[in-house]
Design goal:
alpha/beta, seven-stranded mixed beta sheet, 7 strands, 26% helix
Length: 213
């Protein structure tokens, strides 16, 4: 199994089959709990919440357990199947949908908060633009996007596309306010050993971005 290389993602759309294959295991991002950066900002989350690229649902379920209405979307059917099983096992009401995050413009749902844990960095340039336009469509004015993505400080090219701080500022320059961008590291599954990332996990950005009212 080979992870997509970051330099392949600038022009090519995401390969659904490749992500299905990664769920055969171990998927590096599937750590069985939320990333600590999202639990640390839990008090800033307002519902309803969209978890874009929810994977097997740990963030969606975490915020549902806090009493929020949560919708999780992912275009990988296996991820949604696993997320639904977790929701049933934990007796949590979460809407978990197989949906392409680059097609949010055709949706009538509206959200006060959007969580993006490792989705933004998988998109090509064209898909990234469609995704951000869709976010502006579904996020209420004044609502916030909480986004974690690979940083250009992470060495190598294997794995997701590296993103610079300037790219984040440029991507969200029109109609958004970038409130903060902080360097962090992403926790990955210890069972994933195919790619050697930085000690402590891949270097990343954690951004809080508000849609202008």
């Amino acid at each position: 199994m080979t992870m997509p290389q970051s330099n392949q993602l600038t022009t090519q759309s995401v390969d659904r089959a490749k992500f299905e294959e990664l769920y055969d295991g171990p998927a590096p991002w599937d750590i069985g709990k939320p990333q600590p950066q999202f639990t640390a900002i839990a008090s800033q989350i307002r519902g309803p919440v969209l978890d874009a690229g929810c994977g097997t649902g740990e963030h969606a379920l975490y915020f549902a357990a806090k009493g929020h209405r949560v919708v999780g979307i992912d275009f990988v059917p296996e991820a949604i199947r696993r997320a639904r099983r977790k929701a049933a096992d934990r007796d949590l009401a979460v809407d978990l949908l197989i949906k392409d995050a680059t097609a949010l413009n055709d949706w009538n749902e509206r959200f006060a908060s959007v969580i993006d844990c490792g989705l933004f960095h998988v998109f090509s340039d064209g898909d990234r633009q469609r995704y951000v336009e869709g976010l502006a469509h579904v996020l209420e004015p004044g609502g916030r996007l909480f986004l974690m993505c690979f940083s250009d400080a992470e060495p190598g090219i294997e794995g997701p596309r590296r993103v610079s701080r300037q790219e984040l500022n440029d991507t969200f320059a029109d109609g958004w306010i970038v409130e903060s961008i902080q360097p962090v590291q992403i926790e990955i599954s210890p069972a994933f050993t195919e790619v050697k990332f930085s000690e402590g996990g891949p270097k990343a950005w954690f951004a809080i971005i508000r849609r202008k009212g």
